[in-house]
Design goal:
about 150 residues; seven-stranded mixed sheet; alpha+beta
Length: about 150
């Protein structure tokens, strides 16, 4: 019997796009509902690549009572899109790409977000709790808070 190491399954094989990867994880039901309500599902299933800083259900639960429900209303779609696209950076940025750096990166929303990877990793003040979850069209970094884009002065 011969052993073929080429056929060994790596521990992190990207099998799904960003949306389906989030659905499969089971801890992003609020995020997936928000993405759907905002009409961003097809975009995040697209070619990408995208880097998504994905708040968990627990992160959404930290928002003031009623915030999520209010954002999911059709009349608040523009605000919801702005918040969600602030969690997305064009391109695929792995943790090794930014290790030891502090920088500002342009989000899909248009505003810059601060990323600090000098002592752990924070994004807009949220802590990355799980990094480098690969998807077929990018990467997800799990964060412990919902980050809010700067508002116009």
């Amino acid at each position: 019997m011969t052993t073929n190491t080429e056929s060994a399954t790596p521990t992190h094989v990207a099998l799904h796009d960003i949306v389906d990867t989030a659905v499969a994880a089971g801890s992003f039901t609020t995020l997936v509902a928000a993405v759907t309500a905002a009409g961003l599902g097809e975009t995040l299933k697209g070619a990408g690549p995208f880097t998504v800083f994905a708040p968990t259900d627990e992160a959404f639960a930290k928002l003031p009572a009623g915030t999520v429900e209010n954002l999911l209303k059709p009349e608040n779609k523009d605000t919801l899109v702005s918040i969600l696209t602030y969690h997305v950076v064009p391109g695929k940025v792995m943790s090794a790409d930014i290790a030891g750096k502090a920088l500002h990166v342009k989000t899909v929303q248009g505003a810059d977000v601060a990323v600090d990877a000098t002592n752990g990793v924070t994004v807009g003040g949220a802590t990355v709790v799980t990094a480098d979850i690969e998807a077929t069209n990018g990467v997800i970094h799990v964060i412990d808070a919902v980050i809010m884009p700067p508002t116009a002065a």
